[in-house]
Amino acid sequence: MKQALLGFLKRACYLLGLVQIYLLIERKLGWKRSVVSLCYHSIPAEAPTDAISMLEGGNCRATLDAQINILSKWLQPIDDSTLLGWLNRKVTLNRDGLLITFDDGYKNNQTVAGPILKNYGVPGLIFIPTDSITSRNLFWWTRLSNVMRHIDPTAWKKLTDHELPDPVLKIIAAEDLTSWASRKRARRQLAIWLDRQDSPEPALTTIESTTSRKHVESTPKQMEVLEWDDLSLMQNDLFCFGSHTHTHPRLTKLTDEAIQDELGTSCQELFQRLKQRPISLAYPAGDFDDRVANCAKTAGFELAFTTLAGIIDRQSDRMQLPRIYLGYSKPHEIYFFLAIINLVKYFPRNLAGRLMKLAR
Ligand SMILES: [Zn+2]
Prior knowledge:
Layout: H1 2-15, H2 18-29, E1 35-40, H3 51-56, H4 61-74, E2 76-77, H5 80-87, E3 97-103, H6 108-120, E4 124-128, H7 130-135, H8 140-150, H9 153-158, H10 166-174, H11 180-196, H12 201-208, H13 213-217, H14 228-235, E5 239-243, H15 256-274, E6 280-282, H16 290-298, E7 303-305, H17 331-344, H18 349-359
Parallel strand pairs: 1-3, 2-3, 3-4, 4-5, 6-7
Helix pairs in contact: 1-17, 2-17, 4-6, 4-17, 8-11, 8-12, 10-11, 15-16, 17-18
The structure holds zinc ion.
């Protein structure tokens, strides 16, 4: 009910031109600048159709195009070097800044998002988990999706005969996988559980043992990752690269030494391949705490991005920069989002956080 009312309000404000008028006034009279950083992942060419792919994918070509079209008109697209220069008061922005980021290094960031960004002159910052580019090992969430797409309901129930932790057995008992809805629920629940483990490997391997190798090892097109040669080509084409660690672990679960190893290996590989040291890091799964942030600083990163919602101003902690996930927002929602981010920069931080929730 609350969501429906908010949706109606957003559409009404857009159709009556109220948000556009506010944005024009703020552009003329606004005295404070901020930067909004958006977080994207895989950008498939077409909107996903099956329930499992919908869980995997973010936007698609059409939705990204519509979003960047509007955002690039109102905000000043920048890369991470410009953001750093602005935070250091060495660069000024004519409008509020827009930083577009992509996590995990998917191939379609180049093939699908690349032409869109080029068309609007918008730089893209891709956070690379270096091991996946070199080893071509599938991410655990891609492996889980492969199983959940292909597993036979009888084999699924037989998993109860295997050594699996109780929470996993409960998820298996609750679903029969005879519909896409059931597969989607099971996939979501398993992903939440696996994501909390120190290593998702043992349980995931057991679950995979019930499905054929062909299905386990296949990579759906929307989950293919970039190759090192792609990165070199993209460097000359509005793209820059940051670290997303080496193996994409949850950093808060690691010792200081292991964190330094993850960050150091990733930086070294990016430098060797691209001849440029990354200045930015994105914490895998947005998982960080003060200890992880200190390790990132010690490793030499100038900027580190979370998945906490918010806007960046010159007082923002550089090791805890917010990023916003827009999802499949429609044009009227994008305009409302723009109005909110233009408004919250004038509010104290605690109030701004609450207002930001309305924008998503
Ligand atoms: Zn990631």
